[in-house]
Amino acid sequence: MATTDYYELLGVGRDASEADLKKAYRKLAVKYHPDKNPGDAQAEAKFKEISEAFDVLKDPDKRAAYDRYGHAAFKQGGMGNAGGGMGGMGGHDPFDIFREAFGGGGGGGIFEEFFGGGGGRSTGGAQHGADLRYDLEISLEEAAKGTEKEIRYRRPVSCKKCSGSGAEPGSGKKTCPTCGGAGQVTSNRGFISFRQVCPTCQGSGQIIENPCGDCHGEGRVMDSSTVKVRIPAGVATGSKLRSAGKGEAGHMGGQAGDLYIIIHVKEHELFERHDNDLFCEVPIKFTLAALGGSISVPTLFGKGSLKIPPGTQTGTTFRLRDQGIPALRSGRKGDLLIRVQVEVPTKLSGAQRAKLEDYAEACGDPANPVSESFVEKAKKFFR
Question: N or C: which end of the chain has fewer CB within 10 A?
Answer without folding.
Answer: C
